[in-house]
Amino acid sequence: MEVRNAYKAALFGGTFDPFHKGHLQVTEDVFGELCPDRMIVIPTGHPYMKEREGRQVTPAEHRIGMIRAGLADSRVPWEISRAEVDLESTSYTVNTLRVIRRQLAEELGEDTPVELYFVCGSDVLLTIHTWFKTAEILEQAVLTVVPRGDEDPEQIAAAKKRLEEDYGARIRICSFTGPEISSTMIREDPEGCADLLPPGVSEYIREHHLYGM
Q1: Distance between CA atoms of 167 and 5, rounded to whole angstroms?
Q2: CA 27 – CA 75 distance, rounded (Å)
Q3: Which of 7, 63, 194, 201 is the most buried (most CB within 10 A)?
């Protein structure tokens, strides 16, 4: 069960390479549905899955700059956490949750109950059992799942049930669906995909000559 009357922090992690309108919509819709006390956006530091595939990720400071530009006019009380980008080693979700929980305890006081909501795509339901320290991740946070429009609701429900039975996971399926936007496509043609980017992000990409612009 979710903790009643707890301080609620929604954690939205990702590579954000670049930050696009889909990320913006998820941020605003999650805030509208959960009404958290704060939305913490967490850019990945060393995304080992992508690096293992040989993909180079845009430097963290530019990804943070694009997040700031994309959220500049948002109504959401957002902030950016450097919990992962400041690490020299690989960043794991379980360690990030520990860091955020410790920081909130220091800020709010040890006696303040805190509930973390880990925002993720529904594909995570199918893969999280392979992550580092899965059981602790599911103990530390409520999985807040954003489905995509082309996904099978029955498959999502079945995966949710398995995690609840195997780990005692707390899982919340959002009522809205996330848009299908390809970051790869944007990186390959940022000019042609400008309509998929918040205006500030397009300007940031041009100013810093990212993605070949």
Answers
A1: 24
A2: 10
A3: 201
Per cent of the chain over pLDDT 70 is: 95
Token match 């530390």: residue?
140
146 and 122 in contact (C-beta within 8 Å)? yes
* Per-domain boundaries in the chain: 7-212
Residue 190 to residue 183: CA distance in whole angstroms: 10
Beta carbons within 10 angstroms of residue 5's beta carbon: 7
Classified by CATH at the fold level, domain 7-212 comes out as: Rossmann fold (3.40.50)
| Tens-place pLDDT, residues 6-36 | 999 999 999 999 999 999 999 999 999 999 9
User: Does pLDDT of 47 surpass 70?
Assistant: no
Question: Are the CB atoms for 169 and 140 separated by under 8 Å?
Answer: no
User: Degrees (nearest 5) of the Cα angle 34, 39, 40?
Assistant: 140
Which residues lie closer than 8 Å to 12 by C-beta, 6 or more apart?
Answer: 23, 26, 27, 30, 39, 40, 41, 42, 119
CB within 8 Å of 150: residues ≥ 6 apart: 180
For 98-116, write each residue's pLDDT tens digit. Answer: 999 999 999 999 999 999 9
